[in-house]
Queue: 2 jobs
Job 1
Amino acid sequence: MAVLSLCAGAAPAQSADLVVYGDYVLTMVPDEPVLENGAVVVRDGAIIAVGSRQTIDEQYIGAEAIAGTHRVVMPGLVNGHTHTAMTLFRGMVDDLDLMTWLNKYVFPMEGRFVTPEFVRIGTELACWEMIRGGTTSFVDMYFYPDDIARVVDRCGLRAVVASPHIDYPSPGFSGWDDSFAAAVDFVKRWQGKHPRITPAFAPHAPYTVSPDHLRATVEKAAELDAIVSMHLAEAPSESAYIAENFATTPVRHVQGLGLYNQRLIAAHMVQLDPNDIALTAASGVGAIHNPTSNMKLGAGISPVPAMLNAGVNVGLGTDGAASNNDLDLWEEVRLAALLHKVQTGDPTAVPALQALTMATRMGAVAARLGDKVGQLKPGMRADLIQVQLNKTRQLPLYDVVSHLVYVTDSSDVVTTVVDGKLLMRDREVLTIDEAALRASVARKSDEIRSALAATDDAS
Ligand SMILES: CSC[C@H]1O[C@@H](n2cnc3c(O)ncnc32)[C@H](O)[C@@H]1O
Ligand SMILES: [Zn+2]
C-alpha cells in the first residue's frame, strides 16, 4: 500500500528511438508559438511527442539523443519542384529566356547526355545537397524515374517522383506513346509500395503536350489515384502560344481539359490573371513558386500575395540546378519574402512567417504530402532539422523566425532527419559517400566536357 502511494502520479518513462532537443522548437502548427527549451520525440519513424525539455525528459527515454544548444528544431523543408539530375548541367547555360534555354540548349543536351547513369549520379548529387541544406522532401520530375526512386530509397529522403511524358522525343523515348506508357507503368509499380516515395505523372507543359494527351493523363491519374506534376503558366511565351492556339490562358486551357483538380501540383504559376487565381483557389491545385528560376529565365513574378489571399496553397521550389543554379531552399524562402515586397511596394507582403510556412506546412500541402510532413506534432512522420543560430554572423538573436528567413543559409543546418532516420549529423551526411560521389561527378562531367569539345572542334 505504502509503495503504491509513493509511486502514484509518476508514470513509467516510455521508450523512444530518438529525442531531438532545441533551445527553440518551431512546430509550424498554426498559431502555435515558438517553444523555448523543448524537444521532439520519435518512435518508429513518427513523431510521438513535442514538449518542454523537462516534460519530455520525465516521460521518455530515447535510444539516441541530439543536443539542442543554440539550435532550433523545425520541420524539414519541402522543395515542391525540381529536376534533381539536372545538377550535372549546373552552370552550363545561363542568362537566356525559357524557350531559348529549353529548345536551343537543354533539350538537345538532354538528348545527348541523359542516361540512367547520368540520372543516378545527378540525383545523388542533388540528394547530398538537399540533405546538407535541410530539405527533407521534394517533388522531382525527370527522366529514368526508376533510377531516381532507387537513389531516393538509398539516401533516405522523401520524394514525389514524377515520370515525364511529352509529345517529342526525350531520353529513352521516341515521343508521347512510349513515354506515357512508361509513366503509367511506373505509377502502377510504385503506387503504395514505398513509405517515402510517391510516384506521379509529369506531363511536361501545356505547350509540349497536346490537349488529347493531357486528357489521357487526367484519366489515368484518376484511375490510379495518382498525383500530376506539371509546369504551368511559367513565361509570357507560353501564354502567347496558348492564346494563339487555344484562345485562352494556360490555366483555363488545362482546366478545360479536366486537369485542374486536387491531384495537380502546378509549378511556376507566374502568368496568371485574376480569373486564373480564383480558379486555382476553387480547384485545390497546389501552386509551387520558384522565384530564383523565374528571375533567372526572365519569366516574370508570380502573383503570390494574390494567390495566398485567395486561399491557394503555395509551396516553394528551386526548379533544376540548370536554372537556379543550386538546390538551396533557404534562398527561395528569402526571395519569397523579399520579391513580393518589391513587386507590390508593400513591405508587409509575404511576411517572414508566411515565407517559412510556404517552405514547410503549406508547401507540404501543395506537394500533396501535408498528411505526412510539414509540422512537428504527434502523428506526423519525423522529418525534421536542426538549424544552428549562434554563428558570429547570426548574432544577436531576438527573433527565431526572422533569423530563419533573413539570416539563415543552408550551411547553418546541422541535423537532418527523415522518417525518424538520421541522414545528417553535425553536418556529416550519413547516407551518401561524398568522396565516391565527387569521383562520379568528376568522371561524368569530364565525359560531357570532352563530348562538347569534340563537337565544337568538328564544327
Ligand atoms: C518532362 S519534365 C523534365 C523536363 O523539364 C525541363 N525543364 C526544366 N526546367 C524547366 C522549366 O523551368 N520549364 C520548362 N521545362 C523545364 C527539363 O529540362 C526536362 O526536359
Ligand atoms: Zn521545372
Note: The CA atoms of residues 341 and 347 lie 5 Å apart.
Job 2
Amino acid sequence: LHRHREHSANAENLLPEVSNPGHGSSQHGAPTFPVIPEPVHPAPEVVQPAVDAYQAAAEVAHSARTLHQNEVHSPISTGRVFYGIMFDAGSTGSRIHIYKFIQKDPVELPVLDNEIYHAVKPGLSSYKDNPEEGGNTIRQLLKIAKKAIPKEAWSRTPVVLKATAGLRMLPEEKANALLKEVQEVLDDSPFFVREDGVSIMNGANEGVLAWVTVNFLTGHLYSNTRKTVGILDLGGGSTQITFLPKSKKTIETAPVTYISNFDLFNHTYKVYTHSYLGNGLYAARLAILGAKDANDVEDRVFTSSCFPKKYRGEVTIFGTTYKVSGIPDGYAGYKLCYYEVMKVIKGIVHQPYEVKGNSIFYAFSYYFDRANDTGLIDDRGGVLEVRDFKKRAKEVCNKMTKYGAINPFLCMDMTYITCLLKEGFGFKDSTVLQLTKKVNNVETSWALGATFDYFRNLNI
Ligand SMILES: O=c1ccn([C@@H]2O[C@H](COP(=O)(O)OP(=O)(O)O)[C@@H](O)[C@H]2O)c(=O)[nH]1
C-alpha cells in the first residue's frame, strides 16, 4: 500500500522541468494520481505565460541588483542562478524555505533546482510576551540562508515572511509587536526586503498557495488534461481544504467567500478553498478540553475521555501550559472521545457538494505526522483511505496502554482527524488520501506557491 518515493541523485531532475512537464512525477510516479501528468511538452500557449512568470522573477532580482550594483558570480557556469527565501511563521513552528532557481537560457524556462528547508519550534505566537526572543528565532534561521546563498547574490535575493493561524489568533497589538520585531530582523539582514515583506497571510491565500505548490510539484499544472488534485492541510491553529470543483453545483452551493479566483500560467482558476481558524490540531485540542477561553488555567485540570484513564500530565500549547488528565473512575475509548470531538466539528465545517465524489486529495502537515506516528505510513508517505484513519483511531483509543505511552494525545488527535474528514468535510470512507511530506524533495506547503506569487502576482 505504501508508496515509495525515490529521490533522484541528479540535482537537475529534482523537479519537473517546466519545459518538460511531468518528468519528475512520471519518474517518481505515484500510480494513484487520478491521471499521471503526461510526459509531453505542453501546448506553446500554456508554456508562454510560465516564461513570463519566471522572467518576472528575474526582473525582481535584476532591479534589486542594479540598486546594489552587485554582480552575480554563479558557481554554475551553465546559467544564471537566483534564489528566493520564504519564511513560514506557523502557529507551532517557524520555517525557512530557500529556493534555488536556474535560468539556463534567457528564453528557456528556469528550473526550480532545489529547496533548503529548516524548522524551529515553537512558533512566533508563543513569544507573544517576548517579541525580541521571537525575532531571535528568525535571526537564527537567516544564518542558514547566509550559508546557503553566495554572498554576491544576497542583496538581490528577496526574503519574505508570512504568518498564519498563530498570529491570526493573537490580539492585534501582540501580533503587531511580533511583526514589527521580525521586520527589523529582516531589514537588518543583507537580503532584499520589499515594503510588504512581513505580513499575516489570509486563510484563502494559504489554501490556494498550498494547492499551487502541490499541483506544480506533481506536474498537474502543465498537463494537457487539466486535471488537478485537491489539498488538505492541517496546521496547529487552522486547517485548509482546497480543490478545483468539477461540478457547477459545488460552486453554487458554497458560501461565496469559499470560492477564490486566481491567475496562473495563462489560466484563471476558480477553486473551492476555506481555512477554518481554530480547527487546526492544537487549537482543536484546546477546544476539545474546554480550555480554549479558560482564564483560570493555573487552577484547573482539564479532563478528557480521549486520554488513558490514569494519565496525568501537562501540555504546552501556543505558549500556555495546561494541566490535563484522563477520567480515572470514568470511561475512556473511541466512542466517548468521538462524542467529545464532535462538539468542535459539527455545524462548523461546511461540506462541499463534491467531496462525496471520487477525487484524490493530497494531505500533509499534521495529517502526515499523525499517520506516520501511528504507523499508517512510513517517512516516505503513502496512499490511504479515510477509513484507514478511522480504523487506526479506534485501535489507538481502545488500546491506550500501548499507544498512550507513545503520546497521550494520539487518541484525541486521530479521532479529531477522522471526525474532521468524515463529519466535517463529509468525505466517504473510500476517499483516497495521498499522504505527502515532500514531492521530489521539496516540502508540500504553501511556501513555494507564495514564492511564485511574490515573483508574479497571481491576483488571488
Ligand atoms: O514546509 C512545511 C511547513 C509545515 N509543515 C508541518 O505542517 C504543520 C504546520 O502547522 P503550523 O504550525 O504551520 O500551523 P498553522 O499556523 O498553519 O495552523 C506542522 O506539522 C509542520 O511540521 C511541514 O511539514 N513542512
Note: Residues 44-68 form the longest helix (25 residues).
